[in-house]
Amino acid sequence: MREVILLFNFTEKEKRNKVTRALFPLRIKIKEIEKKDYLNSIGYLAGNKELSAVEEVYTGEELEGEMLVMAGLSSARIDQVLKALRKSGAGNIPYKASLTPTNQHWNVRKLFEEIKEEHERMHKEE
């Protein structure tokens, strides 16, 4: 799978631009996902040709924060992305994930809920 980073709910233009500028030197494709596409699987949105689009359009609530999903990246490349994001001045992006064989079949809302739950568990323990 080709390297791609999916951006969800990056409504603040300045933050979106900082993220884009930070990742540009890494030559990774960046794809902004529209809310109407949230019922599609993460894998399909990342470009997995084996997965199909859903016909239904999402009309529910927007995500409660920005989410960034990395697909097709090695662990070294993920480290580069995270370092570039930290240096960018874009601020905190609490909901980040890597595409996995399991979560590639989930839709956007399901992945967001899983990441949010995990994030809350981690910060409760601190």
- Calculate Rg over CA atoms: 14 Å
Form type: globular
SSE succession: EHEHEHEH
Helical residues, percent: 25-40%
Strand content: 15-25%
Number of helices: 4
How far apart the termini lie comes to: 36 Å
Structural class, by secondary structure, is alpha/beta
Mean pLDDT: 95
Taking the sheet with the most strands, its summary is: 4 strands, mixed
Order of strands, main sheet, comes to 2-1-3-4
In total, the number of strands is 4
List segments where confidence is low: pLDDT < 50 over at least 5 consecutive residues.
none
Oligomer type: single chain
Structure at a glance:
The protein is of the alpha/beta class and 126 residues long. The protein is 37% helix and 15% strand. Strand 3 (67-71), helix 3 (75-88) and strand 4 form a beta-alpha-beta unit.
How does this model look, in words?
By secondary structure, this protein is an alpha/beta fold. It has helices at 13-23, 42-46, 75-88, 108-124; strands at residues 4-8, 29-33, 67-71, 95-98. Strand 3 (67-71), helix 3 (75-88) and strand 4 (95-98) form a beta-alpha-beta unit. The termini are far apart.
Features:
four-stranded mixed β-sheet, alpha/beta, globular, single chain
What's the structural blueprint in terms of helices and strands?
Elements: E1 4-8, H1 13-23, E2 29-33, H2 42-46, E3 67-71, H3 75-88, E4 95-98, H4 108-124
Parallel strand pairs: 1-2, 3-4
Antiparallel strand pairs: 1-3
Helix pairs in contact: 1-3
